[in-house]
Amino acid sequence: MWKSNKVAGLLDKKQKIKREIEKIQKDCNHPTKSLKSIRERVDSHITVIRWVCDDCSKLVGYPSKQETDNFFRE
Length: 74
Fold this sequence. Notes:
Elements: H1 2-27, E1 33-39, E2 47-53, E3 59-61, H2 65-73
Antiparallel strand pairs: 1-2, 2-3
């Protein structure tokens, strides 16, 4: 019984953290961005290259083929 209460509490904390992250990302002006290798989906091991805000870690764009090629050369 105590495990289900603990799980419920953790899930509640997870939701609060998720909402806080969303608010920070919404309020961010994304002043600088970098190309990064990130997971395609949360449940995936496949990585993709995307533009990500350096301040709030939000995905802010998709690189061109040339930008992707340069990323792999560096």
